[in-house]
UniProtKB/TrEMBL annotation:
Protein name: Epithelial membrane protein 3
A cellular component annotation (GO) from this entry: plasma membrane
Pfam families: PMP22_Claudin (PF00822)
Signal sequence residues: 1-19
Species, as recorded: Chanos chanos
Gene3D superfamilies in the cross-refs: 1.20.140.150
């Protein structure tokens, strides 16, 4: 039982870290090694100085929706972890971690909705950017998609996890 508890905790922390990186890093859409775009910035690599020059992303309704859903996912997953730690020390023996599991499942659904909207609305989100056919999805976008099943699985595990001690 201790191994299961430790495994679920490690899975939760890894997923939370990946979700945070996916939300904050700068590569949801990339054009080679010279330009990328994320939920917050559009960056171009300046060869003369060897630095990235970033400007705020153009705001539109789709981008704001994806931003809100990804931030909501991080917040729900963080709340879930804090509640889990609280329940671990205060819950009576045999109790189930329903609230923790529900928060994780909702975080997974929020990340799913955000990544799905970005997938289908990238033309509107990146409207003033270079030709989309020359670019591709970046690693943060892929991390967001990887987080979805991990969040849902950990949420289901929390729902079925009983406190033994």
């Amino acid at each position: 039982m201790a191994f299961l508890l430790l495994s679920v905790t490690v899975l939760h922390l890894i997923t939370l870290a990946m979700l945070f990186i996916a939300t904050m890093e700068k590569s949801w859409w990339v054009w080679g090694d010279v330009e990328n775009s994320d939920l917050w910035h559009k960056c171009i690599f300046d060869n003369a100085t060897g630095t990235w020059l970033c400007a705020s992303a153009t705001e539109n309704e789709w981008l704001q929706t994806v931003q809100a859903l990804m931030v909501l996912s991080v917040v729900l997953s963080s709340i879930s972890f804090l509640v889990f730690l609280g329940q671990l020390f205060t819950m009576s023996k045999g109790g189930l971690f329903y609230f923790t599991g529900l928060c994780q499942i909702l975080a997974g659904l929020a990340a799913f909705a955000g990544a799905l909207i970005y997938t289908f609305q990238r033309k509107e989100i990146l409207q003033d950017s270079r030709e989309l056919a020359l670019g591709n999805f970046g690693y943060c976008f892929i991390l967001a998609w990887v987080c979805v099943p991990l969040l849902l699985c950990s949420g289901v595990l929390y729902v079925h996890l009983r406190k033994r001690a």
